[in-house]
Design goal:
By secondary structure, the chain is mainly alpha-helical. It has one helix and no strands.
Length: 51
């Protein structure tokens, strides 16, 4: 495998890693939204049960 082929392989791997990273960032954002909703729901339910 010559240098050009090695670079091409590394560039492709880099593209795949960037795509995976983008997916993970989206997943983390969705998890953050879900967690915030759960916390809000928990706080709301706790206040209602105290009243």
């Amino acid at each position: 495998m010559n240098e050009t082929e090695k670079i091409a392989v590394l560039e492709e791997e880099n593209r795949k890693l960037k795509a995976d990273n983008d997916k993970l960032v989206e997943i983390m954002a969705q998890l953050r939204v879900t967690l915030n909703r759960l916390i809000f729901r928990y706080i709301s339910d706790t206040k209602e049960s105290e009243a």
